[in-house]
Amino acid sequence: MKPMRYAHNDGHTDLCYDDSGRYILTCGTDGDVRIWDGIDDDDAVSHRVGDRAFAIAFKNERFFTATDANSVQACKFPDGMPDGLVTRFTAPINHMVFNAAGSVMVAGSSDFTVKVVEVENSRHKVYRGHKAPVLSIALDPKEQLVASSSCDGTVQVWSVDDQAEVKTLPLLDKCSDVSLAKSLCRMCWSPNGEFVFVPVGKGIHMFARENWELVDKIVHDDIPGTINVLSLSPDGHHIAAGCIDGVIAVVDWQKRKVVKKHRHERGLTITSLAWNPSNKHHVAFCDGEGQLGLLEVLQASSQGDSGEPASGMEGVFDDDDDMLIQASSKVMGEIDDDDTDSIDLGAIKKSMMPLIMGDDDSNASGSVTGATGEETEGAAPPRPVAPIVVEGFKPTPLQKAFQSGSTPLHLSSRFMKWNSIGIIRQYNTDDESSIDIEFHDTATHHAMHITNTSDFTMADLSAHAVVLATASDEECNSKLTCMHFGSWDSAKEWSVIMPEGETVQAVTAGEGWIAAATSSRMVRIFTVAGVQRSTFTLPGPVVCLTAHRQHLMAVYHAGMGLPGDQNLACRMLNVKGQKRASEETRLPLSPKSILSWAGFSAEGTPFTMDSEGVVRMLNTCLANTWTQVANTCDQVKGKSDHYWIVGVNENPQQLRCIPCKGSRYPATLPRPAVTVLPFCVSLCEPDSEKSQYEEQYMRSVVFAQHLSRLAAEGVELDEATQRNMQRPAQEALMKLFALSVRSEREFRAMEVCELMPDEQTLQLSIKYATRQRHLHLAQRISQLAQQRAQEEQQEEEEEEEEDFRDYLQASHNSTETEWAAESGQGTRKKAVRQEEEEEMEEGEEEERKPSGPMLNMKAKEKLVKQPSFGRANPFKVASQEKEVGSTKGTQVFDVMKKTKERAPVISPLPITLKQTKGGQRKITVKGKQAQQPKLAFGSGSDMTPSSKDTVADTQDEEQSENEPVKKPVSAFELWLSESQGDLEEEHPDLGEEELSRAAAEKFRALPREERQVWLQKAKSQPQADDGASDKKRKHSEEKDDEVPPKTQKKAPASPPKKPLSQNTNSKSKLAAFAFSTKP
Amino acid sequence: MDPAEVEFLAEKENISIVPNFALEQIYMIGGDLGPFNPGLPTSVPLWMACSLKQRQKCRIVAPEWMDVEKLSDKKQEEVDSKFFTPMPSRHYLEVSQLLLQCATDDIPRADEVKTLIKDIWDVRMAKLRSSIDIFVKSDATHAKLNHLTLMEINTVRPFLTSALNLLHDLRSNLTAGGFASQD
After folding, report:
1. What residues contact A456, with CB distance under 8 A and at least 6 apart?
2. Which of A419, A420, A441 would you mutate first to test chain B, the one with the most B CBs within 10 A?
3. Which residues of B touch A442 (CB under 8 A)?
4. Interchain proximity B39–A443, CB inside 8 Å
5. For residues A758 and A785, what is the distance between their CA atoms, to the nearest angstrom?
6. CA pair distance A132, A110, nearest whole angstrom
7. Contact A735, A896 (CB under 8 A)
8. In this structure, is residue B177 part of a structural domain?
């Protein structure tokens, strides 16, 4: 039993099935008729029939409603077009029934009369006799008699032909109005007209036709309340009785047995009941608050008759049918092509089940009862045996082509497109046919309003152009129009007519080009000004096209899907480059769903959403697979609410959606508001701490992948953005590591360590593990770090050898990227190389011209940046990696401090450079220093298990002695301490930096012998302040370090300048922290 | 405090706007605002929303409570209740006043909203006046009123406090020289 669902406002609600049993029609006090495609239909079609509707009936593809206009109105099904008045009364009509053929209608009204109306010609007979409003009507199956119940407390039986009263039975309580009546007293006749069933109080009274005597009273404990409505099942065996206290009992009237009982969850009055004409197991009902429910009689009836072998068979066939239906996919043939509705298998199955079910039941019961010789067969009236229809395989209807971000075509005001650039709305009413184009950013263009004379139905919008297209009809061919508002000449618009018989099905606008997919499976690519650039053919009918910059994604049908599924494929290609062949990928969808949105994120990664609300993105990290990154259905408030996606951003991670209450798409008015949903990679146990960190890690990795792609496309990204994108991943790893360590999962912790990209985090992990007394783990991590370091060293060596070649290659590669190919100049490469050579000779060039040199600059930057991706550059690795790691790592632990009692002690890097001002060279020094302990560590690699404690110990020592690192005092420092006073006198105007520089120069200028003296002194002295030594080292490096001129030249120009000072600060801060917490 | 001051405070209330321009995050003393993405709602103080709206740089998203159904419910609740009911916003009058002035086109059924706000205000002011009346007449020394908004308090404060002072003076005079009243 499914929960009740809202259908109408409070008050009397009536319902009926259509002839096929697929649709349920309801009407209520709100004056609407709703057509439900099965009980699960979230998108019932409403037709307004009046201010109130009292009764509804369905016959011959028309439905009839009794409204507050005191008339019975016929409407066509399913479009609800009025189809004439059937009859009129002087007061509201309370009930109406039809004969089986639908030619005669009988209605009872509050004006005390009953009318029998011939539907075709509206001829009617009036039956007067009741002294109060007529409650309900029942027409005898032989169409000779009519029973009517009334508020005057009587049930009268009339003869149809001579309008005479046959019998009056005073059975009911008297009242003055329908609304005061205790019971609606809906009656029914037995299948052959032999008996009439009248609900009287808690019992069902059976009156015989021949003498109108009470034959029997069906009273049962399961019917505790006053019965309101009765309804006979289509096979005539069962009567469903709905009570005013919410109980529905299904009674086998021949055996006087209740086979199914259901109690309304809120005990509301059952106002109407209807059996599904094609499925004898479904009873739909409405309650007094306008809710609709569906009762399945099936299981209970088989339980109730469990003594009989037949019922056992029922269950067996039941299962088979299910499988049969699924296998044959017959269901799919029934599906409406309405592209907005999802395919609801359940509803369809329900509607199709009875056909097959019915046969099986009759066959089964027939044969089985024959064998057991029970008397049930005799009592059951012969049922019409439906012809066995052998259905072949029916394929799932193919999803129609659509524009991403548009609402259905049949709406009179709809969105043709909503994307990150703007909104295109279409108004298509009788008096107005126009298109409104509005831009989110008014800087792009002002809003436009055009009259839609050509009847455009498809549109897309980019920052430079609007593309509109029409489908073809009998008179004119399909037309594509482009409004190139970004053009600098005065001709802003151009159109092109498609060839005969070819109609545009999808359009999209990219950067400087537009594309249209046609019914002949062609994709035609135009430049934005109208040059036909290229065409290609898709392997299947197009579903949608979408564009981002120079990338085109075409989604199309790759073949026939599994039953209920679509089989979609997509192809990504570069419209301008055309060099890189892109393979076709299959587009995964949730089971039984269709694609509802496809597009690129602002960063250019393809995303899709299907009708189940699942958002997926193309994951290039995992071999171009599609990863689910969000499920919008998890976020909705109500069951029938949906999100309508309008855009995706990867940095920051935003899923921009419009919440739609009770529908799949928004209305144009009131203007919908965009909300931002978070992404969430779907993992097991999403609430556990571990999964949350894992989710964070996975998500940030997946969402950071666009960085490398953008880099490959030659887009410059600033360092800070990149770091910001990568930081969450590292944080998550650190937390996950800490969590694993705390929960004694050393192997898992080790695995986490293997995911850590740089030594800095590894070092921190070692510290943390040591602190938590996981010495074995710490040792293993240090082995890993050491292994990494060795690999790195090897790479460095290789790199050094290949350095020059690499350099050329790098520039070479960069010219091959798309943006370079875009310009299409063959001479570019040469120019680049020339420039480079020039540069190498001339040294740093300050002024650069816009064209050639620009490229050159990029090429170089690529080379410089390379290590950050590939960890390959011999010169950059140490400094850059370090600094990235340190900021991240330490910050993570800063955060972790809060959660843990014992904060880990931070790395033993000798950071004492705070007092000297930040600069590039200095960092290089620090990097080297930082590396030293690790490398030394690496050299002492013959660590046996017995020495593992010492490993930890040395590290602890290192930590505790962090600040005053023991270091031999240099000769220069000794000399400096002696002669500092003199120097200051000599250069009173110099700052500390310059002073030390001058000092260094002076020291150098000293005669050799004198220096020797100082050196001797230095050797004899055990140690000194290391800050000074640092300075010295810095300077000596500045002077002596003869790195290849190239890097020396480039190092200062390279980006990572900014974060350094920050980095130093955080390090020193942490160092101070470590110092203060020294045990 | 005069109404202008209260309005000034009300302008600090945050409200959601949909900008039609792009701008990085801006850093203000009161907090960071933005970043502004065209088409994406963002929350800004009312003063900024009004200023942007006047320059046609944004669309204002009407606050959730500024809705005819909700306000009529609120009004009914206010009418039915003997006491003051909590208001959806501490500055409902000022906010709606400002929004209805500068962003009429962004508020659905602005006229009805305006009437409803005015009605609620009137109901509450009537309640306030009657309670002051009772308070003064009953010679009570103190009274407690919950859920009054700043604007409402400030409409009665100047008068009420001075009136009470005067009353106090008169009373003390009365007790000091009893025969004065005889004259």
Report:
1. A416, A426, A435, A468, A469, A470, A481
2. A441
3. 20-21, 38, 56-57
4. no
5. 9
6. 7
7. yes
8. no
* B38 near A CB under 8 A: yes
Mean pLDDT per 10-residue run, chain A (1079 residues)? 80 87 87 85 84 87 88 86 86 88 88 88 86 89 88 88 85 83 86 87 86 84 84 85 87 84 84 85 86 75 40 40 42 42 49 46 41 42 60 82 92 91 90 90 89 90 92 85 89 90 92 92 92 91 92 91 89 76 82 92 91 90 87 86 91 89 87 89 89 91 84 78 83 91 89 86 88 88 89 83 50 42 43 49 44 42 42 43 42 45 42 41 41 41 43 45 52 74 68 73 75 74 48 47 44 42 44 42
Is position B94 within any domain?
yes
Name the nearest CA neighbour of A976 among A1040, A1022, A929, A1025: A1025
Please list every residue in chain B whose beta carbon sits closer than 8 Å to the beta carbon of residue A441.
20-22, 38-39
Task: Give the range of the structural domain holding residue B83, as residue numbers without chain letter.
Answer: 3-161
- Residue A366, classed as helix, strand or coil, is helix
Distance between CA A257 and CA A218 in Å, rounded? Answer: 9
Domains of chain A: 5-334 (2.130.10.10), 413-587 (2.130.10.10)
B48 interface with A at CB cutoff 8 Å? no
Cβ of A675 within 8 Å of Cβ of B108? The answer is no
Residues A1035, A1037, A1040, A1042, Cα dihedral to 10° = -140
Give A-chain residues touching B38 at CB under 8 angstroms: 439-442
CB A287 within 8 A of CB A293: yes
Q: Tell me the one-letter amino acid at A428.
A: N
DSSP secondary structure letter of residue A179: G
Predicted-complex ipTM score = 0.82
Examine residue B174 and state whether it is found in any structural domain, yes or no.
no
Asked if A742 contacts A769 with a C-beta cutoff of 8 angstroms, the reply is no
DSSP B50-90: HHHHHTT-EEEPPPTT-SHHHHHHHHHHHHH-SSPPPPSST
| End-to-end CA gap in chain A | 67
CA A590 to chain centre: 10
Q: What is the model's pTM?
A: 0.52
CA atoms within 13 A on the CB side of A14: 26
Distance (Å) from the alpha carbon of B31 to chain A's nearest alpha carbon = 20
* Residue contact B20–A674, C-beta within 8 A: no
Token pair listed for A573: 């290609």
Q: How big is the A-B interface in CB pairs under 8 Å?
A: 35
Q: Do the domain assignments include residue B23? A: yes
The number of distinct structural domains making up chain B is 1
With H, G, I as helix, E, B as strand and everything else as coil, classify residue A419: coil
How is residue A1046 written in tokens? 């190239």
Instruction: Report helix, strand or coil for A109.
Output: strand
CA–CA distance, A1077 with A1075 (Å, rounded to integer):
5
Give whole-number Cα distances, A434 to A416, A428, A477, A495, in Å: 11, 7, 20, 18
What CATH number did the domain enclosing B32 receive? 1.20.58.1020
Instruction: Mark yes or no for CB contact A674/B18 under 8 Å.
Output: yes
Please tell me if residue A656 touches chain B, with a CB cutoff of 8 Å.
yes
Tell me if A442 and B108 make a contact (CB, 8 A cut-off).
no
